[in-house]
Amino acid sequence: MKFMDSIIKDSMYLWEAAANESFLEEMGKGTLDRQKFLDYIVQDSIYLRDYLKAFAMAMYKSDSLKQMQVFYSILGFVNDSENATRLKYLQDNSMTDEDVDKMQKLPACRNYTQFLLDTAKDGDIPEILMAVMPCMLGYYYVFKSVLDKYPSVKDGYFAPLVADYTSEFYKECCEYWTEYCNEVCKDADGEKKKRLSKIFEQASAHELYFWQMAGGKI
């Protein structure tokens, strides 16, 4: 079993719990309260700003041009696709990115982003990867679950967000980054792999808390 297969398996209970959160269930059914969805979009937009900072720190710590280019590639995707979709939803509510810049982080968002930034500041490249990957890979998992259970979601208000994370392109991105992580972590010893697995699990837990926050549970 490859390294990433192993650590994903160990954190799958958190991903499954996230996929079954009421917020995502209601999104799939098309019954999600629009204000609740807007609140999520705002917090997720705030989160993406610090997510980008973690990748920027990985670029700073890279030891080759090729590695820098790999991390740089994610910056364009976040801006051109992820943030673009969120901006459209914000515009639907007469808001802009500048408005989001003035918003406060809710506790689950604040705790998650602090975890990302602390790991990016103090960790090495493999550790940074383990902190950021549960967001990328986990989003494919939970939104694919929503689409599989509620195919009609692709025709409703939430379709652009779901489409971003269930497209063939996004799937290929997840596969690429999974293999890249396997390559980067292949020479890690047993203790290091335990450390990396723990970071991945902690980040996956933060993902779950974020969905619970979106649903108003915390």
Describe the structure.
The chain is built from 10 helices and no strands. The protein is globular, with a radius of gyration of 17 Å. The longest helix has 28 residues, at 34-61. Helices cover 82% and strands 0% of the residues. The chain is mainly α and 218 residues long. Helix 1 (3-19) crosses helix 7 (125-149), helix 3 (34-61) packs antiparallel against helix 7 and helix 7 (125-149) packs across helix 8.
Secondary structure topology:
Layout: H1 3-19, H2 22-29, H3 34-61, H4 65-92, H5 97-101, H6 107-122, H7 125-149, H8 159-166, H9 168-185, H10 190-214
Helix pairs in contact: 1-7, 1-10, 2-7, 3-4, 3-6, 3-7, 6-7, 6-10, 7-8, 7-9, 7-10
Q: Which structural class best describes the helix and strand composition? A: mainly alpha
Question: What is the string of SSEs from the N terminus onward?
Answer: HHHHHHHHHH
The geometry reads as globular
* Average predicted local confidence, pLDDT: 94
- How many individual helices? 10
| Main sheet record | none
Give a concise summary.
The chain has 218 residues and is an all-alpha fold. The protein has helices at 3-19, 22-29, 34-61, 65-92, 97-101, 107-122, 125-149, 159-166, 168-185, 190-214.
Considering the chains and any ligands shown, give keywords for the structure.
218 residues, mainly alpha
